[in-house]
Amino acid sequence: MGEAMKILRFFIVLLMVHVSVLDAAAEQDKAPLKAIAQLDFQRYLGRWYEIAKFPNRFQRQCVWGTSADYSLLPNGHIRVLNQCRNSAGNWEHAIGVAKPIEGPPTAKLKVRFAPEWLSFIPFVWGDYWVVDLDEKYELVAVSEPQREFLWILSRTPAVSDAAYTELLGRLAAMGLDIQKLEKTPQPPAAGNSK
Fold first, then answer.
1. How far apart are CA 92 and CA 84, in angstroms?
2. Which residues contact 101 (CB under 8 A, 6 or more apart)?
3. In the predicted model, is pLDDT for residue 90 greater than 70?
4. Contact, 84 vs 62, CB < 8 A?
5. For the chain, what is the mean pLDDT?
6. Pairing of the two strands 64-72 and 91-100
7. What is the pLDDT of residues 172-184, one digit of tens each?
8. Quick one: pLDDT at residue 192?
9. Domain range holding 97?
10. 159: helix, coil or strand?
11. If we measure between CA atoms, which residue out of 67, 97, 69 comes closest to residue 81?
12. CATH of the domain at 66
């Protein structure tokens, strides 16, 4: 019985190694993620409601009502105000800055939420790539080259099932794991926190 267990364990380990190798190969086979061809910053400014996201550590406290407000700064960068409600119902805010990587009209930006005096340090900047955007600038998907993060944002607190499903299909075709998405609760009449 002991020898049979050793053989079984060996085959389980062998199977796990095989699956890991296949997963790694599948990751390498993915085409590099691409941003949309161009982004009209003026049309992109304003409020966006979070519809869904990949869970992440820096939004752990957000329970509902998550939104992002973008406004243009005098230097051409974009001011980012992210806000959400925590479990106590209080507003949480994070203020950041986004800048184009290659100059407008690129849809590849870098964003930081660290203090400005740390802006010279490369690792305080994160990738913010617009990977899908409808013609009316009403529904957008934002990710980054490693596909670890994904946000779906809308100009309204809710989107139609058809538009959401079509977007998911396009995101899956890009190699994004849409199974990881979690929907963000929004109040029926989402209002400003001011």
1. 5
2. 108, 109, 110
3. yes
4. yes
5. 83
6. unpaired
7. 999 999 999 999 9
8. 47
9. 41-183
10. coil
11. 69
12. 2.40.128.20
SS3 readout for 10-68 = HHHHHHHHHHHHHHHHHHHHCCCCCCCCCCCHHHHCEEEEEEEECCCHHHCCCCEEEEE
pLDDT digits (tens, 9 = 90+) for 37-77: 999 999 999 999 999 999 999 899 999 999 999 999 999 89
Q: What are 35's two structure tokens?
A: 């941003």
Same domain, 48 and 84: yes
When divided into structural domains, the chain yields a total of: 2
Residues 82 and 153 in one domain: yes
Token reading at 138: 């009403």
The tokens for 163 are 């538009």
* In contact, 89 and 95? CB cutoff 8 Å: no
Per this entry, what is the length of the chain? Answer: 194
Condensed to tens digits (0 to 9), the pLDDT of residues 101-130 reads: 877 688 999 998 866 766 666 666 899 999
Q: Report yes or no on 123 lying in a domain.
A: yes
Q: Is 81 helix (H, G, I), strand (E, B) or coil?
A: strand
Q: With contact defined as beta carbons under 8 Å apart, do 174 and 53 qualify?
A: no
